[in-house]
Write a structure and sequence with these properties.
The chain is an alpha/beta fold. The protein is built from 11 helices and 14 strands. The structure holds adenosine-5'-triphosphate and magnesium ion (MG).
């Protein structure tokens, strides 16, 4: 197959629960070996999309394919190429971590020896060796998440769905998880990940799709989204209130916001940086001394908030 072929695809995917039209025509397309991050506010339909793609739920309509297999006409084939880490852990509480892994390996038709070997590998990779012989009910939330992801990797599937894999993890475990996910990507795995953490999408994903109100409301790389929707902000700080006030007068309508507590003013910057020089020159000409200057890049949070806010407004109209 071509190197950039599409591994995960939905065309005009629709799904309603009664009168709740959760997905109203979603188009997704994930090329081989890349990661798509699916973002959206609570209830946007991220888990619903993942459940449809992993054959746990039937779509109402639309064309949904994984590795070229339709989830409706060829669900067994789809299941044979995917791994899934659900939003709620799907491991057996009474079994030990090791037993869970081996059992899942056997379900994926590994022979007993390979299932054991692969389980030890994963226990190692996920830092669960010490806890491996304890029943899962004694595990902490973070350990469960790690075991859950390990279980979904037992058969090294080429396609993986990760539904909020790092929710509830402490910052350190989140970094460990990112490392593991990066290793999967290095291996060429195609991944669809949902997350509430925009920074996570920023760090890991090749592409981001933002859904809200049942529709895709934005997509692109983190960089594209940020540059399309957020502008750089220029922040000048001053030593005291009187210089701050002179700066305000000098810069006039260029000033977006003033922060008297931090003695700073914020200006919106143009992409080419020309107005940074311009503002500096004006202040220098008027002999207004600057204490410090900072350029704030827009964050994905800015983008997310501005967009989901907009759809909320149109919906309530
Ligand atoms: N089996 C179901 N029966 C009825 N309604 C459902 C069912 N599953 C999901 N929903 C509804 O569909 C909508 C989308 O839910 P979904 O779990 O896909 O959201 P999400 O984007 O994953 O949200 P979160 O960020 O909270 O995980 C919600 O309004 C939810 O109540
Ligand atoms: Mg969800």
């Amino acid at each position: 197959m071509a190197k950039n072929d599409i591994v995960i695809q939905t065309k005009n995917l629709k799904k309603s629960f009664g009168t709740n039209h959760v997905l109203r025509g979603i188009n997704l397309s994930v090329p081989r070996g890349t990661m798509l991050a699916l973002l959206g506010p609570n209830g946007a339909g991220k888990t619903t999309t993942v459940r449809i793609l992993s054959t746990l739920l039937k779509p109402d309509s639309g064309d949904v394919k994984v590795e070229g297999y339709s989830v409706t006409t060829n669900p067994d084939k789809v299941r044979s190429v995917i791994g899934l880490t659900g939003q709620s852990a799907a491991v057996d509480e009474l079994l030990t971590g090791r037993e869970n892994l081996i059992m899942m390996g056997r379900l994926y038709r590994l022979n007993s020896k390979s299932a054991k070997a692969r389980s030890e590998e994963l226990l190692n990779e996920f830092d669960l060796v010490k806890a491996a012989s304890r029943p899962v009910k004694t595990y902490s939330g973070g350990m469960r998440r790690r075991l859950d992801l390990a279980v979904s990797l037992i058969a090294t599937p080429p396609v993986i769905f990760l539904d909020e894999p790092t929710t509830g993890l402490d910052p350190r475990s989140r970094l460990v998880m990112w490392d593991i996910i990066r290793k999967l990507m290095d291996r060429g795995t195609t991944i669809l990940l949902t997350t509430q953490y925009l920074e996570e999408a920023d760090q890991l994903a090749d592409n981001i799709v933002l859904i809200d109100g049942g529709k895709v409301i934005a997509e692109g790389s983190a960089k594209q989204l940020k540059s399309k929707l957020g502008k750089d902000r220029l922040v000048f700080s001053f030593k005291n209130l009187s210089t701050l006030n002179s700066a305000k007068t000098t810069l006039g309508s260029k000033v977006q916001t003033t922060d008297e507590e931090n003695l700073s003013v914020t200006l919106l910057a143009k992409g080419d940086g020309s107005d940074v020089g311009e503002a500096l020159k004006v202040l220098k000409d008027k002999k207004v001394p600057i204490a410090s200057m900072d350029i704030h890049k827009p964050t994905l949070d800015d983008v997310f908030l501005s967009l989901t806010d907009k759809t909320k407004k149109t919906r309530s109209k």
